[in-house]
Design goal:
6-stranded mixed beta sheet, 3-stranded antiparallel beta sheet, globular, Acyl-CoA_Oxase/DH_mid-dom
Length: 716
């Protein structure tokens, strides 16, 4: 519950022996929670006479989402010291520690949940990801190396292979007897998988595939487990048979022998020290006439008969390619969740510290101000807290969609395309947000945040690569934009002349309405110059939805209009036309992802039953939604969606929301449920509060004894 006593009084904080909260719901890491600031005077039109209170336990349970029990169990595992990173280890020591941790995961039965029941798994795809992404709490290197082994290498065999491959290869993959690499990315073709240079040419005489990397740019690169531990790899290559290239397919390829040396024709290098994630042995692989049996083709979507005849259940090469890659979308799912968790940890550390650290005398002659009482500090951290909440709600819905597709409950082409689009929209937003939040948290905690013992800089280093893992974020957003354009064009694919005429009339009318200032004039008249009326409109849920939706739709419609005739142009001119609008496409896709997050937050809010919690979450949702509007105010003004008066009201109302949310900031991060053994940050352990209390007690004693020196300024 929130204590609303003013911070500038001498009221003591809760004792260090305060009871711990329920595991998995709210943090027991706050042995001495400071009293919250006195609430700001209630703004005009505010009916609430008293401060709402957050039910931390129920909110914490809601944030854990659909697989709450599995997340709690995974967090308990992440709290074990032998599963955690040791700062200062050498790269070699860190690599061996993480490999040993993978063996511990096997021993604890923590990695088989998504594998087939026939092999001891549970066919639980959503629960598997929910558990796996919590490993970021222990060590991001552990999370990613486990992901390489079972989420990429093993998952490729599951989803691209058939029963033969499952029975032959999966038992040793599941037990870690065969550590493996996922050899898709090449030095010369990172995100452009369709253009990779590695070839797998079928030899009818021996019924083998011959695998080659014909030039340096075709080397497989940045592969986890490739530098040291991997003994096999799933290698993606252009399948060539009877002189025809049938596109990218996957092959199971042994790469090392029992003594650890490369097999004949296989070579490689260690990527060496990286900017982060040095517990993973990333490396390069190259192949020279490496032969594997015909059966090692993972042939769920494409097979080669003994005589070299190719067949596939999917006739279209393009659709076949995207179907194969779509089965591996879970990497983006887990990165979205892990990045969100990292942001939540960073905010827990920074807000807890900001609630305890005091600096400068502003409102008192004796006590310094708590950092989080400064508006600028609130502006730095609370909007990022709102975004993190939006991401948590969006991620749980994303995970439900993923589970429905991979379990087969909703596995149509449309379902898979929707899942891929959601993944391509959310993963960029969450990974960028994680980096922004970790950097802001580092700066907001000053020199203390720069110390490795407080976790923030280590997490920042490790999560840096997440923005290009599983697809560069900008490339992924282009995929989203193309899907949005396709959906837009489908609306008119079968439209008759009358429908097209109505669209032209409607578009013309909208341009007249928005472009000539009529909408802004209508807003100004409706508001009658009153900020209160402007705020009333902005805080309305439907008004926020309209603003966010309108931006996406308007941007896509405008781009579609520019590109409408591009398909009729020669290839080079069509590519140039697309390139001229690339930045607009990415911005539209980003706006679409933000809208998905806002909608998910709103649905999560609707499921909140406790009145006080619902009120606080409503303010937080409004802060997220209006923060997006404020970020793009120039667009809303230039495109006639907001009047200048209402645009000014956006920032004014955000400032009010910060005041309202300030007393609840600690409760909102406590609801994330991280314990001291999860955070492992001294500045979030109560140590800072003890230092502050010691200093205040020292000066109070001097004042009481009359021994406090008089400032020179007061004598003058």
């Amino acid at each position: 519950m929130v204590d609303t006593a003013p911070r500038t009084t001498s009221k003591t904080a809760k004792p260090a022996s305060a009871p711990a909260r329920r595991p998995g719901t709210a943090s027991a890491s706050k042995p001495a929670r400071p009293a919250a600031s006195a609430p700001a005077p209630s703004p005009a039109g505010d009916a609430a006479a008293t401060q709402p209170k957050v039910d931390i336990a129920s909110l914490g349970k809601q944030l854990l989402g659909t697989w709450a029990d599995l997340r709690i169990a995974a967090r308990e595992r992440a709290a074990q010291p032998d599963m955690q990173r040791i700062d200062g280890q050498s790269m070699a020591e860190h690599r061996e520690r993480v490999l040993a941790q993978l063996k511990t995961l096997v021993d604890q039965g923590a990695v088989h949940r998504a594998f087939p029941k026939a092999l001891g798994g549970q066919d639980d795809h959503g629960g598997n990801i929910a558990s796996f992404e919590e490993l970021v709490i222990a060590d991001p290197s552990l999370q990613i190396k486990a992901g390489v082994q079972w989420g990429l290498f093993g998952s490729a065999v599951v989803h691209l292979g058939t029963e033969y491959h499952h029975q032959t290869f999966l038992p040793d993959i599941m037990s870690l007897k065969v550590p493996g690499a996922f050899a898709m990315t090449e030095t010369g073709h990172g995100s452009d998988v369709a253009a990779i240079g590695t070839t797998a040419t079928y030899d009818e005489a021996t019924q083998q595939f011959v695998i080659n990397t014909p030039f340096r740019g075709a080397w497989k690169d940045y592969l986890g487990n490739a530098a040291l531990h991997g003994t096999a790899a799933v290698v993606f290559a252009q399948l060539i048979t009877k002189g025809v290239n049938h596109g990218v397919h996957a092959f199971y390829v042994p790469i090392r022998g029992a003594k650890g040396g490369f097999l004949k024709g296989v070579g490689g290098e260690d990527d060496g020290l990286k900017g982060g994630l040095n517990g993973i042995d990333n490396g390069r692989l190259h192949f020279t006439n490496v032969r594997v049996p015909r059966e090692n083709l993972l042939n769920r979507y494409g097979s080669v008969a003994e005589d070299g005849t190719y067949s596939s259940p999917i006739a279209s090469p393009g659709r076949r390619f995207f179907t194969m890659l779509g089965t591996l979308v879970q990497g983006r799912v887990s990165l979205d969740g892990a990045a969100t968790s990292a942001a939540a940890m960073a905010l827990t550390i920074a807000i807890t510290y900001g609630n305890q650290r005091r600096q400068f005398n502003a409102a008192s002659d004796t006590d310094e101000e708590v950092l989080l009482d400064y508006q600028r500090h609130q502006r730095r951290l609370l909007p990022k807290l709102a975004t993190t909440y939006a991401q948590i709600f969006a991620h749980d819905e994303f995970l439900l969609k993923f589970d429905a597709v991979f379990s087969g409950r909703a596995d149509t082409d449309d379902d898979r395309q929707d899942l891929e689009t959601i993944a391509a929209a959310l993963k960029p937003l969450s990974t960028w947000h994680a980096l922004d939040t970790l950097q802001e948290a580092r700066e907001a905690t000053g020199g203390a945040g720069f110390l490795a013992e407080n976790r923030i800089v280590g997490l920042r280093q490790d999560l840096d690569i997440y923005v290009t893992f599983e697809g560069d974020n900008n490339v992924l957003l282009q995929l989203v934009a193309k899907r949005l354009l396709t959906d837009f064009s489908k609306q008119f694919a079968k439209a008759d002349a009358g429908a097209m005429a109505r669209y032209v009339v409607q578009s013309t009318a909208e341009r007249a309405y928005h472009g000539t200032g009529l909408r802004r004039l209508a807003q100004t008249i409706a508001d009658f110059g009153s900020t209160a009326r402007s705020v009333s409109e902005l805080r309305d849920e439907n008004s926020q939805r309209e603003l966010l939706t309108d931006r996406v739709e308007a941007m896509i419609a405008e781009i579609a209009g520019h590109l409408r005739d591009a398909r009729k142009l020669p290839k080079a001119e069509a590519a140039a036309a697309f390139n001229r609008h690339q930045n607009q496409l990415i911005e539209a896709a980003r706006a679409h992802g933000e809208l998905l997050q806002w909608e998910a937050f709103t649905r999560g809010l609707a499921q909140t039953t406790d009145p006080g919690t619902k009120q606080v979450l409503t303010w937080l949702r409004d802060l997220f939604g209006l923060g997006l509007v404020e970020k793009h105010l120039a667009w809303y003004l230039m495109n006639g969606r907001l009047s200048p008066q209402r645009a000014q009201a956006v920032t004014a109302y955000i400032d009010r929301l910060l005041e309202r949310l300030r007393p609840h900031a600690q409760d909102l991060v406590d609801a994330f449920g991280y314990k001291p053994e999860h955070l492992r940050a001294k500045i979030a352990s109560g140590a800072e509060l003890e230092r502050q209390d010691e200093a205040r007690a020292h000066y109070a004693a001097q004042r009481a004894a009359g021994t406090l020196p008089v400032p020179e300024k007061s004598k003058k």
